[in-house]
Amino acid sequence: MEVQETRVQTDRVLTIPNILSMARLVGVPLFLWLILQKHDGWALLVLALSGVSDYLDGKLARRWNQISSLGRLLDPAADRLYILSTLFGLTWREILPLWMTLALLAREAMLLVMVWILRRHGYPPPQVNFLGKAATFNLMYAFPLLLLSDGEGWLPSLAAIFGWAFAGWGTTLYWWAGILYVVQVRRLVKADATAD
Question: Is the pTM of this model over 0.90?
Answer without folding.
Answer: no
